[in-house]
User: Which sequence fits this backbone?
């Protein structure tokens, strides 16, 4: 059966502290020793330490529960999780990517469970922004609790720009000129690296939204609109990043072979002037860049003939309970604790730099200017002062994401045209819809 995904993304991140504290587990559940196996993606040492601290807070309140945690790189988790769950093994709780091509695949295979009864028990629909919960809802059933809301745009190292007398490009034409100028000066224009290939998803989301606009993208992704990934506008969006910018020297040499960490390192070191990626990188930038106060975050440049400039946003990853779990009630109680606005929310925001979809006391959060700018953008979107575009891959079926990954890599290698890729994306979308 085809899944229906409804997803809104204008989240409240402001100053109202939500009512509804974490509800303790039933008395019987608290008596028996329980081990919860949790797989998450927090492999960075600093983030991992924060997560250990947060998880420990739950076990302190529930001393009968032991958490066996395993941190797994995102790419490895995508490759191994479904096999583990299908074989009857794997964790009780997973922190995994939202969207039809990720958690949706697990839901359709009955490898994760709906959590509507727990949502009612713990008041999740009152505690968590409803628009975020919609992003993890499949066929009217809630499957996951989304931890983070991401913004995708362009980081600018203003120290590098000012040193060379450059201004951040605001149009594609300015971008192509800038890339040639920066390359001639020995500076990598954009720290784009596309190994293993998912990085290109975000680049396409930026250019596609700029061309067709947020309303049209929402219609395609969420409202059952007739998807037309083979339109002239989408061809232009593909051509802009994967041909025109490639040919202008915007990327490091052999970008297809460089990992995401390789690209990040180029930006941290000041070897690259720009970085087109998401808000999830802010914590790492603050930890790895001496002059992070010289970094700004802006929307990707507008494309001639398009609809303007849009921030791209979407639910990142969420917590799910697997069908293999022998302790679904305890797993749900654990997940509820992770979203307690009075105990945990500020830690996710202030220490982890995650924009969590529960409302928190924003005035109490110490935020760098860079992170504060992300919070401000999301608050402006709530007031209608900033229109947000949509991250494509988190709402696309798996065949479409596979075609993005393989097709855009082929384009970067010069083995495929924008017209061919657009036609293949449309075919893949139709295949996924079946």
Assistant:
């Amino acid at each position: 059966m085809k899944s229906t995904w409804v997803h809104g993304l204008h989240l409240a991140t402001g100053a109202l502290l939500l009512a509804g504290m974490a509800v303790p587990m039933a008395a019987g559940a608290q008596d028996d020793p329980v081990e919860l196996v949790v797989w998450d993606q927090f492999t960075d040492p600093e983030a991992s330490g924060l997560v250990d601290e947060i998880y420990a807070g739950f076990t302190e309140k529930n001393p009968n529960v032991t958490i066996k945690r395993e941190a797994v790189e995102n790419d490895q988790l995508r490759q191994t999780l479904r096999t583990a769950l299908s074989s009857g093994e794997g964790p009780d709780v997973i922190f995994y990517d939202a969207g039809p091509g990720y958690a949706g695949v697990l839901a359709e295979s009955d490898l994760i469970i709906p959590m509507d009864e727990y949502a009612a028990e713990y008041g999740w629909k009152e505690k968590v922004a409803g628009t975020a919960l919609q992003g993890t809802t499949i066929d009217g059933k809630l499957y996951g609790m989304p931890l983070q809301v991401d913004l995708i745009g362009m980081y600018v190292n203003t120290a590098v720009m000012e040193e060379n007398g450059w201004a951040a490009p605001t149009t594609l034409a300015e971008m192509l000129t800038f890339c040639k100028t920066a390359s001639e000066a020995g500076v990598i224009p954009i720290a784009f690296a596309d190994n293993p290939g998912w990085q290109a998803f975000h680049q396409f989301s930026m250019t596609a939204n700029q061309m067709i606009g947020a309303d049209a993208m929402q219609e395609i992704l969420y409202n059952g609109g007739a998807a037309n990934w083979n339109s002239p506008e989408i061809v232009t969006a593909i051509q802009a990043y994967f041909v025109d910018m490639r040919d202008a020297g915007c990327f490091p040499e052999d970008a297809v072979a460089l990992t995401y960490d390789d690209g990040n390192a180029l930006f941290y070191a000041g070897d690259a002037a720009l970085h087109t990626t998401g808000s999830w990188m802010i914590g790492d930038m603050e930890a790895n860049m001496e002059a992070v106060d010289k970094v700004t975050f802006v929307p990707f440049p507008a494309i001639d003939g398009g609809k303007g400039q849009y921030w791209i946003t979407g639910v990142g990853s969420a917590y799910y309970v697997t069908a293999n779990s022998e302790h679904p009630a305890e797993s749900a109680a654990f997940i509820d604790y992770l979203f307690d606005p009075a105990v945990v929310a500020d830690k996710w925001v202030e220490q982890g730099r995650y924009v969590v979809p529960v409302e928190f006391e924003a005035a109490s959060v110490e935020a760098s200017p860079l992170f504060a700018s992300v919070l401000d953008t999301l608050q402006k979107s709530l007031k209608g002062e900033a229109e947000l575009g949509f991250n494509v891959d988190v709402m696309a079926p798996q065949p479409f994401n596979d075609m993005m990954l393989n097709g855009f890599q082929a384009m970067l290698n010069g083995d495929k045209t924008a017209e061919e890729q657009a036609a293949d994306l449309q075919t893949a979308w139709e295949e996924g819809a079946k």
Summary: Residues 239 and 418 are 5 Å apart (CA to CA). Confidence is low (pLDDT under 50) at residues 1-24. Residues 150-313+388-433 form a domain with the D-Maltodextrin-Binding Protein; domain 2 fold (CATH 3.40.190.10). The chain has two domains: 27-148+316-365, 150-313+388-433.
